Structure formats: structure tokens, C-alpha cells
């Protein structure tokens, strides 16, 4: 979705209804202490959060309800600005470097490492939340922690899985979905022949484009850099991944090289494609529309096929919560985040997201949402199974720069469209990666 919306959530009416005359700051302190919370908002505090536009209405509703409850409990008003997925990254970077704008941001992947010195140290907050809730998933923690310091709080993994039309797969001659990349290519060829093709983004899609490009590379054993941070993209494994991508691209509908995160959703729901990779939001877009009941009943989900590397290797979209150091009320910001991670609040949000957002803390793994619908199963382990985008090197400013610059996405797009030869596409990617890993 590319629309931009702004929400202003205030709970003054809820406070008035309590009949408490001590004032919002006193009420906030009392409730924070009563709830066992560690942070007390500054007097007169207000906050502004920049977040990505939600794809699942229930996720937004649950987040806003929790925010409203925080305002009613503390008197702290929270303004929520929503931006398209592609716009969050540049707007957050501007806010960080200019020193004004939103106080907090829901950012992507390792974006916090682009401006770590512009963020509030939240080690006390994140450590406390982890100790109280079974610990953070290692992959998600890596996106929020620089050395021993938390520069962000892990929020979620947005699981990525194959979404396909079961009847169209069977019409193409397959009784079950192929588990390996060779079988997957044959399925895509057969579905194209039947007029029900696949489609994956080769455009600068923050989630779907990056997830697809990294899966292509990793499933064939390739990597951008090695364990020492040395550029390693120029390899036989990368060449094999590109040749495989070319064969898959030949089965796609035209135009996927310009797709953003919304385009494969639209193509699938319009019946233009019958197979893509996406979050569970694609299923719910159909399930919540009576006109699409036939499509919804036909949708199945499965994890991406296993390639020559011999194991499941998937990126998964990740999001973190950061507090900018220009925030005038950092204690209020910490209190807000801590409130949102209280078990009843976090579980309500995970359930409201209908398997779209996978929990960041292990204590929430038994949320009933994961077993409430077979469609959810492919997304249930996203937080535990994700591989960080900096693989095989560490996360940091370099990996964040390569991701933000869409280096890997561009390499595959250049090669599959014929803009560059395979060797030239790899050489260009190596040059660009080397600019960050110096």
C-alpha cells in the first residue's frame, strides 16, 4: 500500500472518566508502579511514532487500542504517523540526521545501524523485557543490538512464505508442492503453460523484493560477504543463483522488475498470477472480501523450497522500535514501549495481526494464533528461523548500507532482464558492496 495516513490517539476522555483529580502525571506514575513498569513518563510528555502502513487491519486496531490504553493510563498523548513501506527508511534517516520529527520509529532490518549515534540507548528497557519474557530470539536481537548495547527494541519478524492457488497447482500436474528448487522451477513452468503463472518482485520492494533476492542467493550457497566481512559475492554459487533466477523469471508475467511490495498482492488477487511469496496479509485480503471467497478458499501456504545448499534459508522481514536522541521525553518513550510489551498487550497485538507479525520474545510463542488456521503454519517459526541479511558477516553499518541500497535486489534484476550479463551484474554488485565494507 502506498497511501499515507496520520492517526492522533489521545486518551483524555478516558482519564476524565476515572474521576481522578491528581493529574495525568500522578496517575501515570501510580499505574506504572502498579503494573510493575520501570519507567515513568516526564511531566507534560507527548510522543510521536513513525510506523509502516499496516497490511492487516486487525494489527493496526490492536496496536492503536494498546496505545489508547497507554494514554488513558499515563496521560501521555501519542501521535502515530504512517508511511508506505518504502518511505519509512528515508524519512527515519532524515529525522535522525536532522534531529527533529518523530520521537520513535518502527524501522526495517538493520536500519538502526545507519545512525546508531542518533538513537537512545535502550539496553535497560530491552534487557528487562527479555528477562521477563523468556528471552529474545537471537536473529531478531541481532537487528537491535550493537556490541553489548541495544540501540533498538526488537518488534517482530513478518514471515515470508509461498502463497499459491491449490487448484491451479494441481491443474498443472502437481499433487503436492515441490520441496526443492528444481521441482519448484518445473511447477512454475507448468503453471505458466496453463496460463496461471507465478510472479516475484525484482523491483525495490523493501520486504518481498529483498526476501526473494536473499533466498535466491542463499539457497544456492552464495553470500554477499564472508565471516570476516570480505566481499564474497563473486562466486560460482552466485552465478548458479542468477542462472536459476533467469529461468524462474522466464515463467513470470511481464513487469515484475518494477514491482514494489504491493504489486504482487494486487496481481495475485486480480488473478494475474497464482503463485508468489508474501506475508499472511495476502490471504486475509482475500478472506475478508466476500467477492474473493473462491480465491481465499483456494490459497495454501508453504515455506520456500530448499536449494542446493540443503537447508531452509530465508530472510523474513524484521522490524524494530527505536527512540531518536532528539526525543524530549525519552522516559515516556521507554514507558510506552514497555507498556506495549506487557503480556496482555503483546499477545493481543500478535493475535490481532493474525499471524502477520511473529513474536520477538520466546514467551509469546504459544499464542493461539499460530494454530488457529492451517494457513498460519508456514509463518509460525519466522522469528526462530530467519537468517540476518548481513550473512555471513556481522550486522552493522555496512550491512545496513548494502540493504538500504538494494544491492542484491539490483544484481538479480539487472541479470534477469538482460540489462547486464551475469558477470557484469556480479561485478557491479561486488563494487557496490565494497563501498560499504571498507
From TrEMBL:
| Highest classification ranks of the organism | Bacteria, Pseudomonadati, Pseudomonadota, Alphaproteobacteria, Rhodobacterales
Swiss-Prot/TrEMBL keywords: Signal, Sugar transport, Transport
Q: Which PANTHER family match?
A: ABC TRANSPORTER PERIPLASMIC-BINDING PROTEIN YCJN-RELATED (PTHR43649:SF34), ARABINOSE-BINDING PROTEIN-RELATED (PTHR43649)
The record lists the organism as Palleronia aestuarii
Stretch forming the signal peptide: 1-21
Record localization = Periplasm
Q: Which domain of life is it from?
A: Bacteria
Could you tell me which Pfam families the record lists for this protein?
A: SBP_bac_8 (PF13416)
Family membership: Belongs to the bacterial solute-binding protein 1 family.
InterPro entries assigned: Bact_solute-bd_prot1, SBP, TAT_signal
Query: Which named protein is this?
Result: Multiple sugar transport system substrate-binding protein
User: Gene3D superfamilies under this entry?
Assistant: Periplasmic binding protein-like II
User: Which terms in the GO cellular component ontology are assigned?
Assistant: periplasmic space
Keyword tRNA-binding in the entry? The reply is: no
Amino acid at each position: 500500500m502506498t497511501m499515507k495516513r496520520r492517526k492522533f490517539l489521545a486518551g483524555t476522555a478516558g482519564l476524565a472518566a476515572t474521576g481522578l483529580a491528581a493529574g495525568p502525571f500522578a496517575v501515570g506514575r501510580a499505574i506504572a508502579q502498579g503494573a510493575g513498569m520501570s519507567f515513568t513518563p516526564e511531566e507534560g510528555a507527548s510522543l510521536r511514532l513513525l510506523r509502516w502502513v499496516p497490511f492487516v487491519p486487525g494489527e493496526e486496531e490492536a496496536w492503536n487500542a494498546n496505545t489508547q490504553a497507554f494514554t488513558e493510563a499515563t496521560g501521555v498523548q501519542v501521535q502515530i504517523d504512517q508511511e508506505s513501506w518504502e518511505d519509512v527508511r528515508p524519512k527515519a534517516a532524515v529525522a535522525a540526521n536532522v534531529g527533529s520529527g518523530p520521537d520513535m520509529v518502527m524501522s526495517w532490518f538493520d536500519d538502526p545501524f545507519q545512525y546508531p549515534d542518533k538513537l537512545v540507548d535502550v539496553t535497560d528497557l530491552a534487557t528487562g523485557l527479555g528477562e521477563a519474557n523468556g528471552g529474545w530470539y537471537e536473529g531478531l536481537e541481532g537487528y537491535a543490538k550493537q556490541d553489548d548495547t541495544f540501540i533498538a527494541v526488537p518488534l517482530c519478524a513478518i514471515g515470508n512464505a509461498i502463497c499459491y492457488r491449490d487448484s491451479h497447482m494441481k491443474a498443472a500436474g502437481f499433487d503436492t508442492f515441490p520441496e526443492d528448487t528444481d521441482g519448484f522451477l518445473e511447477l512454475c513452468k507448468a503453471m505458466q503453460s496453463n496460463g496461471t503463472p507465478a510472479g516475484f518482485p525484482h523491483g525495490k520492494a523493501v520486504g518481498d523484493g529483498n526476501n526473494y533476492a536473499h533466498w535466491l542467493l542463499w539457497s544456492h550457497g552464495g553470500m554477499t560477504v564472508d565471516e570476516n566481512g570480505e566481499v564474497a559475492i563473486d562466486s560460482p554459487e552466485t552465478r548458479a543463483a542468477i542462472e536459476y533466477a533467469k529461468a524462474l523469471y522466464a515463467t513470470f508475467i511481464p513487469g515484475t522488475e518494477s514491482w514494489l511490495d504491493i504489486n504482487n498482492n494486487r496481481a495475485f488477487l486480480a488473478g494475474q498470477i497464482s503463485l508468489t511469496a508474501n506475508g499472511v496479509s495476502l490471504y486475509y485480503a482475500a478472506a475478508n472480501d466476500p467477492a474473493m471467497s473462491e480465491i481465499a478458499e483456494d490459497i495454501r501456504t508453504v515455506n520456500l523450497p530448499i536449494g542446493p545448499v540443503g537447508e531452509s534459508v530465508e530472510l523474513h522481514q524484521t522490524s524494530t522500535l527505536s527512540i531518536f536522541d532528539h526525543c524530549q521525553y525519552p522516559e515516556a518513550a521507554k514507558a510506552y514501549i514497555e507498556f506495549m510489551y506487557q503480556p496482555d498487550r503483546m499477545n493481543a497485538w500478535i493475535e490481532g495481526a493474525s499471524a502477520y507479525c511473529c513474536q520477538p520474545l520466546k514467551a509469546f510463542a504459544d499464542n493461539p494464533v499460530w494454530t488457529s488456521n492451517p494457513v498460519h503454519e508456514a509463518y509460525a517459526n519466522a522469528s526462530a528461523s530467519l537468517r540476518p541479511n548481513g550473512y555471513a558477516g556481522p550486522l552493522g553499518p555496512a550491512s545496513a548500507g548494502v540493504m538500504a541500497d538494494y544491492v542484491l535486489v539490483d544484481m538479480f534484476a539487472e541479470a534477469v532482464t538482460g540489462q547486464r550479463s551475469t558477470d557484469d551484474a556480479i561485478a557491479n554488485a561486488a563494487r557496490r558492496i565494497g563501498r560499504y565494507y571498507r
